[in-house]
Amino acid sequence: MQTTWKGTISFGLVSIPVHLYSATQEHDVPLHQVHAKDGGRVRMKRYCEQEEKEVPYAEIAKGYESPDGRTVTLSDADLADLPLPSKKIIDVLAFVDAGEIDPLMFSKAYYVGVADKAAAKPYALLRDALTESGQIAVTKIALRTRESPAVLRVHDGTLVLQTCIWPDEVRPAAGIAPEEDVAVRPQELKMARSLMDTLSEDFDLSQLHDDYQQALQQVITARLEGVEVPHEEEPGEAPDNVIDLMEALRTSLKQARSGRGQGPAEDAPEEEGKPEPRRRAPAKKKAEPDAKAAAAKRTTTRKTTAGGTAAGGPSTGKGTKAKSTTAKTATAKSTTGRTTTGKSTAPRKAS
Fold this sequence. Notes:
The protein contains 7 helices and 12 strands.
């Protein structure tokens, strides 16, 4: 792997000689500029306007044009001798939580390797300290013709330096998101979370591939072989407005589960996803026991009334009359009993 930068990490009084290596690479099909009429190669030539002739690359330098039209020429030696401390030193400025750096600021990543064996122990010390603390180191570095903020973090047991853009280079997002207040119902949020969970099941980022490059290669191969160029079927027009958000979420969830071979989801929040006015299930469940209790009460009343009728007849005024007669008879018997008892126990007078 080719070295991109050589320098030293300054960690307090600890110095770690390191090399940087590009951690990423972009793969694409190389395309050239050609003349559309005959396919002739179009090349860019370095042309000097003063001498009106082409100049070799070795005579190319960088220049700056001032607002008044004057031009300053800067050679590679001028750029190499800039009074910049970060040219060869990665100075650790602070340690912060990873969440404190906006991902919008991240740029290119570089693997950090040791320059010699003596740097192995301080390298491991910094790496392990970052791992244990869960933090990243904020630094600055000058690469080529640009100084950038950067962070040092750990990836697969290796220090990674990731350059960043300056905070004032992040454009404000004001006016891009909807400015009016949009109310999201809890049912819609729950359905969206269910869809998120379903789409995330068994997801493997390493299985992603570049469909564009594959399709481009198919077109190139077809041109080389003189066969018909493959074309993708035109997709249907996407709806320009979501009429029923809940229905769209519910359909998306079903399609996502079907695509994973799960079939209909038993735990899909179908009822919870419906609007509030339609959720009458709890009220119905509460009313059912009351109806049963009322029916049982009526049945008990009928049984009790029937049991109080002398001849087992219908529950009418006759039953009430019989009950009253029975009560009077019982009272009379009780009175008679007391009188009889009184007569039988009283002593007789002598004649």
